[in-house]
Each structure stands twice: as C-alpha cells, then as structure tokens.
Specification:
This protein is α+β, with helices and mostly antiparallel strands. The chain has eleven helices and six strands. The N terminus is likely disordered.
C-alpha cells in the first residue's frame, strides 16, 4: 500500500451529508477479502466517530480501525452473529433510522418555497395577531359572594396585590396575582372581555366568572405590539413551510402504507 497515495485519497474524505443529488463517487481504499472499503465508508465512519484526523498517521489509524470493523462484521463468525434476533433487530432499526433521517433532511433542504407560499404563511401567522398586550393581576375566589367582598375591600382602599396574596386561591397569589404581559386571546373569553372594557389602572367592579371560579381583575397597563414585517420573519416562515410540506409528505406515505396492529393495544399505537 502506497502511503502517499492513500493519504491523498483520505484527504478526499469529509463529514458526509448524503442526498440523492450530491453523492461523492466512491473510491476504493482497501480490499478486505472481496469487500471494498471506500472513501465514503471512511467519511461516514469519521463523522460518526467524531474524529477529524489531520495528519497521515492519525488518518491511517482511523482507516485501520474501519478495516478491522468490516473484517470482523464480514467474517463468517460476524455474519452468524448478525443473525441473532437482537442484533438483526438492532440493524433493522439502525438502517430504517438512517434512511428516514436522510430522506427527511433531503426533503426539508430541497422543498421549494415560493413567494406565494411565504405570503400565505405570513397571513396565516400574523393576520389575526392582536395589536395589543395587557398586563394584569387577578384575585381568584371560589364564590361570587367572596369576590364581591373583595371588591368592597378594594373600594375601601385595600391594596390589590396584598389582597391577592391573602385571599386568592389561584397559583399567582404568591406574586400578588400578577399575570404578567399577555395578549387577550391567551386568556379565556370572559376574562379577556372584562379586561378590554377597562382602562389601565381600573379593577373590575363586578366579579367575572370563568370555569376556574370568580375573578376580581386589575388592568395594570397595556402596550401596542407591532406586527413584524415579512422580511424580518422570512427565515422562520420558510422553516414553517418546509416543515408543513414534510408533514404532508409523511402523511401521504402513511396513507399508502398497510399498517396492521398485531399484539399491541390499538389505542396506544394510534
């Protein structure tokens, strides 16, 4: 084996991304019986091992390790061992995962995203985006009478945050009922409707009922939220379009596949 020629071949090896369109031409490096160990094998072995040898000695060592790997696996003993159920199943899983991941990556990278696709995604994502965020506190109570009693205390000058700490049954009681900033559509309808009717600094004069109980709400502040320009979110939208295309592709494959549930709970599998 000519070391200089072999090192030149090794330099052709780099971490490999396999796609249908761009596959390097395999170049044999070493023969193990009748099996050719190629530069593609070495590139993949290199990438999987996390090694990146730069000098000839390290490269030859990596190649020797790969040769030994194929020698053991392709031996009579190795082929017999590969027929063990656990090994065979592991190889099937590894092979399926490799093919699936490569196909998914290829689909994501090669899906064409048109300007019309981006416009549609932008409209779907941001057309109904609320132009305002609210900051509020609330006191959650079990009954309407309890809520009315809290409103009376507020009218008499009680501090809202302190009342929330001592009277609220909600998890935000520890922080004085503080809910932080949120858009109206993040809250249940009755809660948001009551908030939108109030001015900053006002609290609800009548209890607000939701499925969680009875609320007394303080609208602390509000701020406008500008809708981002398409150019500012172009990359994000492109990823979304590509991901949606991938989902459609996988659903199509599943629709074509004949999947029969055997020996498992049907609801769990579904």
């Amino acid at each position: 084996m000519n070391l200089r020629n072999l090192c030149g071949a090794l330099l052709l090896c780099a971490p490999l991304t396999v796609t249908a369109e761009s596959q390097p031409e395999p170049q044999p490096l070493v023969m193990v019986d009748d099996f050719a160990v190629t530069n593609l094998h070495l590139a993949i072995f290199n990438a999987q091992d996390g090694a990146n040898p730069q000098d000839a000695t390290q490269q030859i060592a990596l190649l020797n390790e790969l040769v030994n790997t194929f020698m053991v696996a392709n031996s009579t003993e190795g082929k017999a061992f590969a027929r063990h159920p656990e090994i065979a199943a592991a190889m099937e899983v590894a092979n399926a995962r490799l093919v699936a991941q490569a196909m998914i990556r290829d689909h994501l990278e090669n899906t064409e995203v048109s300007e019309a696709d981006l416009q549609a995604a932008y409209k779907a994502e941001y057309a109904d985006m609320p132009g305002e965020e609210l900051k509020a506190r609330h006191i959650l109570l079990k009954t309407e009478d309890d809520a009315k009693a809290v409103i009376v205390e507020l009218q008499e000058g009680a501090d809202f945050a302190e009342l929330a700490k001592s009277r609220s049954t909600g998890p935000s009681s520890a922080v004085g009922g503080d809910l932080g900033w949120f858009s109206p559509d993040q809250m249940v309808a009755a809660f948001s409707e009551a908030l939108l009717k109030m001015e900053n600094g006002e609290y609800s004069q009548v209890p607000v009922q939701t499925q969680f109980g009875w609320h007394v709400i303080l609208r602390e502040d509000s701020r406008s939220v500008p809708v981002p320009k398409l150019e500012d979110v172009r990359d994000e939208l492109e990823k979304g379009v590509r991901t949606a295309s991938l989902g459609k592709f996988i659903r199509g494959l599943r629709d074509r596949a004949q999947i029969e549930i055997i020996g498992a709970d049907a609801e769990v599998v579904e």
